[in-house]
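During the first year of the project, the team set up a workflow for recording each protein of interest as an amino acid sequence followed immediately by a discrete structure-token representation. This format lets reviewers and collaborators read both layers of information side by side without switching files. As required by the reporting guidelines, we include two representative entries from the current panel. The first entry is reproduced here exactly as it appears in our internal archive.
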Amino acid sequence: VLAVRQAAVSRFARRPAVRQQLAHVRSVPAPVGGWNSHDALAAMKPTDAVALENLWPTTSYVESRGGFASHATGMTGTGKTLANYNSLTGSNKLFCFTEQGIYNVTSAGAVGASVLARTNGKHQWVNFGDGTNNYLIACNGVDAPAYYDGTTATAVTGATSPALTGVATTELISLFVFKGRLIFIQKASMSFWYLASGAAGGALTEFDLSAEAPAGGYLMAGAAWTMDGGDGIDDYAVFMSSEGEVIIYKGTNPSSASTWAKVGTYQIGKPLGRRCLTKYGGDIIVLTQNGAFPLSAATATASVDSKLALSFKIENAFNDAARLYSSNFGWKSILYPTKSAFIVNVPKTEDGDHEQYVMNTITKAWCKFTEWDAEDFAVLNSELYFCDGTVVYKAWSGTVDGTSDIILYAKQAFSDYGLPGVQKHVSGYQPVLGINGTLSFLTDIDVDFKDTAITGTATYSVPAGALWDTAVWDTSVWGAGLQIAKEWTSPDEWTGVYISGKIKIATDTLTVQWYSSNISFTAGGPL
């Protein structure tokens, strides 16, 4: 009997093991970590996204961006510049510059006549007060600088009031204010020209930086860099060359060696256009072909480390865009405080297709906006505007792009869901959404780093007037707008080790908030 039992045990031990299929359900947050084009696909955090388009990553959920709507119409020519006139009384105005003229676009509707003729709309501008008047001053290197005093716009020459003398005013292409002094940059030159402190006009004095720029080229832009967050001993004048050299001075009066001294020359990368410098708190963000760098980080070491760039997490996408579109007009970054957003305008085609790389300044998470074909942006009274063609649009507002749907798309990071090397067959993908009406959307799965067109489908109709706890779970609304997509039979190709969920939504009426995603799968044995 003992021999028979031992034989039975031996036969049982030799049987092949049965590979059990285990069912799992996993939940991951929505991609609040934002778009990631830098890390390896297998190394991304679960809160990252391979793609995140027209979806804004907030601190706790991902939300559909706002749309845009026509604001001001009737301009002659193509809008290239938006500029604010910020008055002493708080009655601020917005102007759009075209190759025909300057138009007051403050109010919605049809614009009036041009306030000043122009032959080129590509301007750089500042607000400046001389103690008597508060001016909007803009120059383009073609026309005489435009001065607007709140009532009248003037093309300033050596014979106007105010006047600029010492250089042909049509040579002035950019400008900035440093410690109460207007500083102009001359086109195709390494020279800047400056006025007396507090003066809006008068004799301009040249300061040639050629000897301080060993890489050569010409000056592109300048800015005041306030390291301590206020006017004080840490204020520097920053000059950016076309070859990527930053030349920094400190002091107050360029005409005196005792009050003007060079800090250094730094090589940080070629700038993207003349609008490459943007104030960012007490720092300056420099748009270069290598990324968007805080100036404090870019000049801190002998070599520029890409990890110091604000754009590091989207480094590959940013560098590809710079390589392809660096010569196009329209590169610009702008802060939009209302949404805690830092927007980089990417001109894929001048007067055509544009997109924006947008960063949440709180979390440093990025996403991409499409369908905003903006030649320039400006913020007026806490609202965002852009110009495109003969129209100025109010942006990040409403739920429709003009008359078209806003197309939202996301592809979450690939994940092995805590089971490395284990094959998984996905049976369902459930985005958890908060909405306020009827929603149609597409969902799909990519496995093992594939990138396929989205094909899955799920549709919901929320009952009108549905209230808390009155609708059916997993069919309509629960908790004032929370929705979960139902499971469905998955195709055979939904089998792999690494899984990425995708979602695509087209809407012109709803605000969508995405909280998390659930995924169900059966797991087999290891590969």
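The second entry, processed by the same pipeline in the following quarter, appears below.
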Amino acid sequence: MSQVVIGTAGHIDHGKTSLVKSLTGEETDRLAEERQRGMTIDLGFAYLNENFTIIDVPGHEKFIRNMTAGAANIHFGLIVIAADDGIMPQTIEHIDILNILGVRKGWVAITKIDIVEDKEWIDLIELEICEYLSKYNFEIFSFNRINNLTGEGVNGLKNKILSSTVQKKLDDSVNYFRMNVDRFFTKKGFGTIVTGTVIQGKATVGDSIEILPNNIVTKIRGIQSLGDSVNIVNKGDRAAINLQNIKLKNLHRGSVISTPKIIKNTNKVIARISMVDSTEWVLKNGQRVRLHFGTDEILGRAIIKNQKKIMKGEAVNILLNLESELPVALDDRFVMRSYSPMDTIGGGIVLDPYPNEHYSTNIHGVIDNIPANPKDRFYFLINSIWDKSKHINEWEKIFINYNKIENWCDELGIKKTRKNILYTKENIAKGKIKLKTYFKKFHLKNSFRNVVAIETINSSINWDQDFLEIVLNELIIEKMIKKSNGGYSFVSFSKPSLTKTQIDQIDTVEDFIKKSGLVPIRNFEIQKGINYKPSHLQDLIYLLISDKKIAGLGNDFFIHQNHLESMLSYLRTYFNESKEMSVSDFKKLMGLTRKTAIPLLEFLDKKNYTIRKNNMRIIGQKLYE
């Protein structure tokens, strides 16, 4: 049986800590101030047996932050309500928090039954609790009437917990480890230790892990679970992890430890928030709120797009601007509380943890439309960030709680490029529109250039190379563009007629390059010798290249086509007598310096006139074509 973590919930002085002690024999109020004041301030931990851990949380409204940190790491609730008081304000707030965090099953303990002599009153309290929890669809495993002074009912509750078959749903297919830190301390002879409940994957002694948001990578020196040393912990287990060479100053309650390079920090998230029915607060656009992610609390502002405020019971997609960076993953749940006075007003689930990365300009245009269903959201995100297409491995990291990407691709008709970049039919359609617009703008700006080099398109469009080629091929099939001269041409483009002045200028540039002979000439040398406007000179050079009068060697080097043909002739003669050619041989053959020989050799390699083999060149297939 996998480990089960149970968290107490209930109003102050309703007997949560006493009940935990009666159940486990352990005193969870470990702080001197807690014992002195007779109230729980921080989280307490106790073990029912090797399978069940109980987290005792504070009941006072001042310590809801600590309660939320504890609730973030539990699987089931133990709701404690005193018979003489019934449901009280913090009972309601705690139940709201459990509901927000997805904890909707557990046990109910009605304590202080010794104070109430009227048994019918306790029946009414039980009925009230049952009716109240039914609003949350909370599944009550059992009602238990407890007298902490005499121990009446304690063994019955303990046996019901121990004999229960409740277990957490585990997704063992996800190997990425993640744990929210709820305690951290040093132990003599061991060093720094962090504790928490493993919420994702598994960890083994010796594994590398990353501490977030500090982005410090270290190793796991040792692991304890339920008081015993173990080699491995899995999702759902309570764990105390000994970290190698880490100082306490690098940790806080709310730190996350995880598999390195899986979770990223963010200061902005898109989320689906729901306002609790019990709140009297109204959430307004730009309102400052307290957000409880995992075991951490952070301040942020709620940005509401299409309405001025959100009322109780309403659920809306919003943008949250966080005041500091936080490690957040898709579908993480969080609690939202008012800034001051502090009340629980709602909570939500992260729909997109990295909107800054995904939407450079139109972030508000997508907020309302992001679906809550993970599979639908996967398709939506691929379509929304189509021009920043991602590898399937990146999508698996983003959907860290849903390692089902391969199945979703099959079910949704999502396609993969050769390099496993994901795209949809809609992505292709959007890509074609953008490329056609790009070609029109390019030709408008560069009226003499009928061919656009793939490198030029790449630098302007900045898409994944695989996806770009797929869209270009679609446009070729539709006869919108054609492949020519090492680039792409817009079929409908027609080059303007040249004036006599332009023809003379072209001849001038050609003659200047021709005079350089076998020595490649650079763009700035042509500019210096002719002194035409740079953009105009580039047009003239391009026309000469497209008419095959000169060749562009790359890195702004050019050579006249006649001299290039002569060079190829020299190479054929050379290779008739020799099998290999060094750089030094090439320099002597052509009368070049190393500075001009290297770009020429690289050009010859690229065109397959020669083939580089270590530091030598051999005959390329095209040399004799």
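For the second entry, the following points were noted during internal review. The radius of gyration is 35 Å. The CA atoms of residues 142 and 160 lie 8 Å apart. Both points are flagged for discussion at the upcoming steering committee meeting.
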